[in-house]
UniProtKB/TrEMBL annotation:
Organism: Streptomyces chisholmiae
EC category: hydrolase
Name of protein: Glutaminase
EC number: 3.5.1.2
Domain (STAS) ranges: 332-396
């Protein structure tokens, strides 16, 4: 059988192909000469599977799509405080190249508009790097996100630098406010190089999938940036990634995204998928016309809007039952699935409502595949309170899904591999042959 996903993507491309509206980015002569008909779309899952249709292996310059990744590198390299001191996180509602800074501090409003991105470029890499080393750090970092060595398009870079008056004006303003502390032209040059890195839609989908995968490249397994950095970056993409179209985008598409003036567009759905489209004609905001249509289609066809509440998670408490009888009776709460706060809440509620009378209580984690930190603490607290109420508490945890189960403060749990191990086998002589054997022995 052929996968259904490339066929779906081909169909989606077919539906937007006839839309010839929009313009190439005229302010960079080399981009104005691009082939406007190119069209491609790719999905990369967090497991590293890539699906695509159309021009997904055609190289084009990354442009502003480099901004969230350079922001991630700056946060990872310098830490949050120094970066936040120089670049805000407020949506500007303005065009990407607006000459605007926060009135009191001179800080650019966010790292997605050029003012913020130029500043962010200067913050990538360790303090004290030369401008060339900094560019190298950024290209290395973008390459790690993509999972292959990326290179720069010198012609596009030179072409943009010859016409970079607006970005230079922004950089001079930043220098005037001491947000930039170096020569403005050098920083704009580095930022323009960053924007001139060549990528394909396939690369961009992978880069987005690395964000979706909490900062770990799905195939190389490399942790490119720490998890808190990814959360920051995705939040800023959600609120600011589409410039003065960010509100429309957040409501209609609902996927953290970033566009570039060469026609690329990416979206990252946390925990699920990275998406990229490529089509060079732009709307007045500088976002790819057909790319925006494709994302609207993907979001509604595949239920990808981040604010669409997921189907209520399946019950975490699969069953509760008693194994064995008499003084050996064991109350088993059998749990399942991935347990986060709301799942742990179900366990707490169940433990309160059942109010076990048996001397032994087991939390059976055999069918649980993950427990996050808050759920772990809540389950251990349940165990602790059950101990204090006089129960002997067992954790049936054959795959050590809950390591170091120390409930602290008077709590005690015994870890066993099977429910049976929590039921002492009664001495053979004492067993009444006419009684059914305790379940599971
Ligand atoms: N929106 C964009 O892609 C803009 C990037 C471009 N290099 C610029 O600074 O103008």
């Amino acid at each position: 059988m052929r996968s259904v996903i490339p066929d779906y993507l081909t169909e989606a491309l077919g539906a937007v192909e006839s839309d010839l509206s929009g313009e190439l980015a005229g302010y960079i002569p080399e981009l104005a000469a691009a082939d406007p008909e190119r069209l491609g779309a790719a999905f990369a899952t967090v497991q590293g599977e890539v699906y695509g249709a159309g021009d997904i292996d055609t190289e084009f310059t990354i442009q502003s799509i480099s901004k969230p990744f350079a922001y991630a590198l700056a946060l990872a390299d310098r830490g949050f405080a120094p970066v936040l001191a120089k670049v805000g996180v407020e949506p500007s509602g303005e065009a990407f190249n607006q000459i605007s800074l926060e009135s009191d501090t001179g800080r650019p409003l966010n790292p997605m508009i050029n003012a913020g991105a130029i500043t962010t470029h200067a913050l990538a890499g360790a303090a004290g790097l030369t401008p060339a080393e900094r560019v190298e750090r950024v290209v290395d970092g973008l390459s790690a996100f993509a999972g292959r060595r990326l290179r720069m398009d010198e012609a596009v870079c030179a072409s943009e630098m010859r016409h970079a008056h607006r970005n230079l004006a922004i950089a001079h303003m930043l220098r005037g406010h001491d947000i930039l502390t170096e020569d403005p032209r050098t920083v704009v040059d580095g930022y323009t190089r960053q924007c001139s890195v060549l990528v394909t839609a396939r690369d961009l989908a992978m880069m987005a999938a690395t964000l979706a995968n909490r900062g770990v490249h799905p195939l190389s397994g490399e942790r490119v940036v720490p998890e808190p950095v990814v959360r920051q970056v995705l939040s800023v993409m959600f609120t600011c990634g589409m410039y003065d179209a960010a509100g429309d985008w957040a409501t209609q598409v609902g996927i953290p995204a970033k566009s570039g003036v060469a026609g690329g567009l990416i979206g990252a759905l946390p925990g699920q998928i990275g998406i990229a489209t490529f089509s060079p004609r732009l709307d007045p905001h500088g976002n790819s016309v057909r790319g925006v249509s494709l994302f609207e289609r993907f979001s509604s066809d595949m239920g990808m809007h981040l604010m669409g509440a997921p189907a209520t998670a399946r019950a975490v408490v699969r069953s509760h039952h008693v194994v064995g009888d008499g003084p050996n009776a064991l109350r088993v709460l059998q749990l399942q699935g991935g347990i986060g706060f709301t799942g742990a809440e179900q366990v707490v509620r169940e433990a309160v409502e059942v109010a076990p009378t048996e001397a032994r209580v087991a939390l059976d984690l055999t069918l649980v595949h993950s427990i996050d930190d808050v759920a772990r603490r809540m389950l251990l607290e349940v165990a602790r309170r059950l101990t204090l109420d006089g129960h002997e508490v067992y954790l049936v945890d054959p795959e050590t899904i809950l390591p170091d189960p120390d409930p602290g403060d008077g709590g005690r749990v015994t870890v066993v591999a099977t429910v049976e191990q929590a039921v002492p086998s009664p001495p053979a002589v004492a067993r009444d042959r006419n009684q059914p054997r305790p379940h599971g022995t």
